[in-house]
């Protein structure tokens, strides 16, 4: 068993988290993560309406009696989803842990805290982590440049970002971005984190609700097979390298505007990749951890393997190096 401030504060067995994943963070995956003793998050905005989120939470409860959370991704969009209604559903459904990401969590904190909901805020820079801590979040998930999704604009990988954040963060903090195995877990603990968050690795498990062909592509892919889209728009996203993402990069590098790529990056097209296994149907999110993912285990196998191998590394290789 690896006990940390994070496992204690958030009431979970293992210091491993499955972060929110658009189209992927659904009940079957989140329940499998919970049943494995780790912490999974249902992705609120994957559900088209707040009522659908309530149903998804109920569906997850049928699959596990262990704690799980909900991810609320707050993105600056022209037509924002009804965040307040999603938040209301989270609270009314009795969820006690929320992962916030994408933007300042301040507007959501009072209501969550009023209802005893712990907030784990995910961010990509030390300054945003410090700010969130000052706002009163209960935990920080510090997400390095390696990650799938939005790595921010600072390009600081975990090896520097995690200890730099650990020096300033006093609430429980987990490390995110590029973690896929026991070595990463031990490294994160050594760098000052209290656990890890993984997206890409959990996406490539038996219970992950995406097409088998996408999982096989992740196993076949390497750490070189991602693209950074939206760099010129300062809204960088790390996605799989395919004809669509490469076209997006090319258009924006030539001075194109968001309108010029909107048809390529639509969420609907991305969802089609996961549904049909057509890897060129749209953009799909994956991180550089792809280079460390070589199989499609069940979530239970993955978590127990990571924990037991981490214990072996600590008790064996690392302890054995002491003279
Ligand atoms: C398919 C996919 C979709 C994601 N969607 C979201 C999202 O909607 N909200 C969010 O906060 N993070 C999202 N992420 C980021 C993950 O929660 C996590 O922070 C990230 O994957 C960590 O990096 P890793 O992939 O190297 O483990 C997504 C990641 C993936 C792989």
Automatic annotation (TrEMBL):
The keyword ATP-binding does not apply. Gene3D superfamilies: Aldolase class I. InterPro entries: Aldolase_TIM, NMO. One of its GO terms (molecular function) is nitronate monooxygenase activity. The keyword Oxidoreductase applies. PANTHER family: 2-NITROPROPANE DIOXYGENASE, 2-NITROPROPANE DIOXYGENASE-LIKE PROTEIN. This is 2-nitropropane dioxygenase.
């Amino acid at each position: 068993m690896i006990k940390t401030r994070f496992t204690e504060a958030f009431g979970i067995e293992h210091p491993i988290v499955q972060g929110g994943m658009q189209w992927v963070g659904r009940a079957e995956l989140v329940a499998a993560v919970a049943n494995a003793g780790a912490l999974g998050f249902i992705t609120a905005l994957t559900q088209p309406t707040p009522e659908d989120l309530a149903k998804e939470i109920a569906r997850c409860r049928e699959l596990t009696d262990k704690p799980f959370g909900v991810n609320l991704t707050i993105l600056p969009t022209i037509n924002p989803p009804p965040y307040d209604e999603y938040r209301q559903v989270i609270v009314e459904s009795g969820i006690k842990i929320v992962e916030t990401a994408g933007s300042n969590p301040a507007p959501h904190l009072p209501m969550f805290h009023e209802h005893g909901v712990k907030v784990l805020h995910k961010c990509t820079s030390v300054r945003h982590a410090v700010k969130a801590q000052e706002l009163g979040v209960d935990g920080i998930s510090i997400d390095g440049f390696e990650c799938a999704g939005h790595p921010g604009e600072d390009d600081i990988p975990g090896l520097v970002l995690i200890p730099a954040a650990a020096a300033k963060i006093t609430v429980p903090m987990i490390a995110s971005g590029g973690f896929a195995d026991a070595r990463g877990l031990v490294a994160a603990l050594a760098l000052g984190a209290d656990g890890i968050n993984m997206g890409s690795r959990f996406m490539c498990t038996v219970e992950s609700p995406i097409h088998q062909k996408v999982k096989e592509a992740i196993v076949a892919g390497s750490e070189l097979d991602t693209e950074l889209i939206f760099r010129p728009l300062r809204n960088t996203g790390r996605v799989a390298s395919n004809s669509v993402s490469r076209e997006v990069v090319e258009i924006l590098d030539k001075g194109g505007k968001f309108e010029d790529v909107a048809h390529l990056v639509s969420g609907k097209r991305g969802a089609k990749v996961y549904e049909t296994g057509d890897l060129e149907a749209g953009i799909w999110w994956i991180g550089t951890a792809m280079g460390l993912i070589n199989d499609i285990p069940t979530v239970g196998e993955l978590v127990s393997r990571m924990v037991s191998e981490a214990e072996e590394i600590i008790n064996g290789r690392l302890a054995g190096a002491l003279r």
